[in-house]
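chain below, 380 aa
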Amino acid sequence: MYVEPARDPNPLAPAVLAAAQSVGIPTFDDHNGHIMEGWGGGALFNLRIRNGRRQSVFRTYAYPYMDRPNLTVLTGALVSRVVLEGKRAVGVEFLHEGTFRRIMVRCETVLSLGAINTPKVLMQSGIGDELELTPAGVEVVQHLPGVGRNFQDHILVPCVWEYQTPLPPRNGGGEATLFWKSDPSLVMPDLQALVAEFPLTTPEVAHFSPPPGSWSLLPSLIRPGSRGRLRITGPKPSDLVEIVADTFSDPADIKALIHAIELCREIGNSPAMRPFVKREVMPGNLAGGALENFVRNAASTVHHQTCTAKMGRDEMSVVDGRLKVYGIDNLRIADGSIMPRVTTGNTMAPCVIIGEMAAKFIKSEAGLEAQLEEDSARPA
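prediction:
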């Protein structure tokens, strides 16, 4: 997995880090590790960009092996359910070019559909809370009440400034980040601010009308106390999944985000940022109920939805420590849905590690690791 710090960043990015230093936030050479798990700090982002091109996980892991006869990548396919014989996964059913098809397996099935569609497919396969499945018209195979529960996400609220002189985005438009605590007594940061080299709004706050030549500092909540859930609306793959995010159901989350906004405004309006600021566009000097209303109206997802089929040992857990679904043979999950809680930072790298561990478990149980070691020990 090739990563590197942002090359030749927009001057805005190092300026934000200098401004953060001016208000007491230290900066580091790398945004991973200590600043996420210690007191906090700022750094240029590590990016999946090489020679000017973004590197996808697919391009890194799967594409180099597309010529192998034992790998098939089928696009435009919608997985509808896991095929079960009793409590044993024997394949998957999917919709492709208007026709339902099945692929049967010799070893096992791994679901890696993400925190929305993995629980959807589980529930429509009869694996989930019987109190939810039966009313939806799905026959219960395995009662697992945690499927679709414990939904978590990172939530951001945009703060926007108009440039003195507009600068075009570089490296994808986001090159610096900050981690900090809303309360000094916390063990690790619960807030993250991300630089966006363009204006960001939601329809509810579009009346602020940021001009195109604007940039954003995005305070986000990375250790939310709120928990949501997913529900299926019917047994068919075309039946939508209902996402009950319950954002801000924990009042502490609003309080933390307000703290994050105040911090970002302090940075954005600091003397270090004057070369890049013509005026603050939003939120401005709001307070009390007006600021809380702004948070609710401007809140948006960072697209880090996770935790809806969590690993653990309690009654709400869905997978064990080797990613196997409780009560179902030959079925694993390898995506962000298995996280017990959302990670402090971005979720891509943790999801890659989950995939690596799934591969390790599968190789071990299939005896492939021993075979590979034996092959490597043979003389050439």
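Residues 251-268 form the longest helix (18 residues). The chain has two domains: 4-55+153-301, 74-151+306-371.
thats it, cya
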